[in-house]
Amino acid sequence: MSKKKLGTNTICTHVGEIKDKQFKGAISPIYLSTSYEFDNVDIKRYPRYFNTPNQEYLSKKIAALEHAEAAMIFGSGMAAISHMFFAFLKQGDHIVVQNALYGGTTNFIREEFPKHGIEFTFTDGYAVEDFEAAIQDNTKLIHLETPSNPLLTVTDVRGIAKLAKKRGITTTIDNTFASPINQNPIDLGIDIVMHSATKYLGGHSDILAGAVASNQEHMDRIWNVSKNLGGSLSDFTVWMLERSMKTLALRVKAQTKNAKKLAKFLDEHDDVAKVYYPGLKSHPEHKLARSQMHDFGAMLSFELNEGIDAMAFQKQLQLIKSSMSLAGVESTMLLPSETSHALLTLEQRADLGISDQLIRFSVGIETFKDLKNDIKQAIAKTKVEVLA
Ligand code: PLP
Questions:
Q1: Has 4 been annotated as catalytic?
Q2: What pTM value is reported for the model?
Q3: Which of 94, 98, 113, 105 is nearest to 167 (CA)?
Q4: Would you call 185 helix, strand, or coil by DSSP?
Q5: Residue of 74, 101, 149 to test ligand 1 pocket, by largest number of atoms within 8 Å of CB
Q6: Which of 45, 61, 140, 199 is catalytic?
Q7: Pairwise CA distance, residues 59 & 8, whole Å
Q8: Is residue 262 a contact partner of residue 363, using CB atoms and an 8 Å limit?
Q9: Ligand 1: centre distance to CA 114 (Å)
Q10: Cross-strand bridge partners of residue 71
Q11: pLDDT tens by residue, the chain, 388 residues
């Protein structure tokens, strides 16, 4: 069966299954061996080589979902990002990095690259011209994240890919927020896609993992570095990730549907000052998002009116959990200033437009009306507290 012709739900359910030839079980067996026979075999299997049966087969599912030739699974999203970067950057090289991006990635670049003599420039904005202006003669990589964390800015993926191709620069993208269900950057011209699989790919807030997908040539290069750095994922967790990914499309579609309705509800709410969601017509890059995403995703952010304390509001929520991470089937909220972007200075946060009032909302699969009612009652109670 040609994988290209398979629908997304079929890829999620079946691609990368290991057939249980011995007992004919319905699901992939787990191979926990860290030691494999090496006589007369083509592949020297070892977990740190990212090629145990479970690692190898699940990679096929991720590659199929990202329309890539190959993929690798890592022990975390940061392992995926760092191994990917180190595969393409050496002393004296330069990377152009989008300014608005996950705080951990920003921190990694700022803290680790100077130790290795790798130069970096964070763009001023996220327009194609901002990326172009940051390119130097020694630029080897351009890294983007769209929609971005936490302000949901949308970068012109085709525009950046075209610019990079013209200048002979490799492009990498963090596709975590969209997930492969809502965006396939390789189809838009991007070279390498990475995910924090801790988020939508895992989807149940119980797996820490990462993934990278690209063509075979780029993946071979990443593998050569990764086998030395050693950030692979244990086979038991790989197996759990396979199980989770069977419902990836179902979950993400349900979450996206809820997010669209909640963005509209918040946008029309008198006590909400601003909503950041690419699916809203008022979002500055709404048309761009429509042209490059399959759907608008299940992440949004919003600011309550001045005077309604964001932290107090969060404490009043009964159903929606306060949570550090995102993309689980359960809805969660957090204050980026206290969590994902807490490692940045106040000035850096202000430059990025991340105020103390900003609340990031990861929309889950719960019934829409229950989520809406939870927000309503929490705003009402917070307002009463202010008046008291
Ligand atoms: N990229 C994005 C967009 C994220 O939100 C995160 C984590 O929150 C990461 C990367 C890092 O992933 P991990 O926590 O799995 O290392």
A1: no
A2: 0.95
A3: 94
A4: helix
A5: 149
A6: 199
A7: 15
A8: yes
A9: 22
A10: 213
A11: 555 589 999 999 999 999 999 999 999 999 999 999 887 777 789 999 999 999 999 999 999 999 999 999 999 999 999 999 999 999 999 999 999 888 889 999 999 999 999 999 999 999 999 999 999 999 999 999 999 988 999 999 999 999 999 999 999 999 999 999 999 999 999 999 999 999 999 999 999 999 999 999 999 999 999 999 999 999 999 999 999 999 999 999 999 999 999 999 999 999 999 999 999 999 999 999 999 999 999 999 999 999 899 999 999 999 999 988 899 999 999 998 888 777 778 888 888 788 889 999 999 999 999 999 999 999 999 987 666 5
110 classed as catalytic: no
Q: If you take atom 8 of ligand 1, which residue's CA is the nearest one?
A: 325
Strand partners, 173: 144, 193
Q: Are 281 and 290 in contact (CB under 8 A)?
A: no
CA of 172 to the centre of ligand 1 (A): 15
In angstroms, the CA 339 to CA 343 distance is: 8
Residues with CB under 6 A from ligand 1: 76-78, 102, 104, 149, 174, 176-177, 196, 198, 208, 210
Pairing of strands 358-362, 299-304: antiparallel
State the DSSP string of 296-331.
--SEEEEEEPTTS-HHHHHHH-SSSEE-SS--SSS-
Reading the block at residue 273, the tokens are 């000052």
The sign of the dihedral angle between the CA atoms of 259, 261, 263, 265 is negative
Dist CA 222 CA 112 (whole Å)? 18
Helix (H, G, I), strand (E, B) or coil at 2: coil
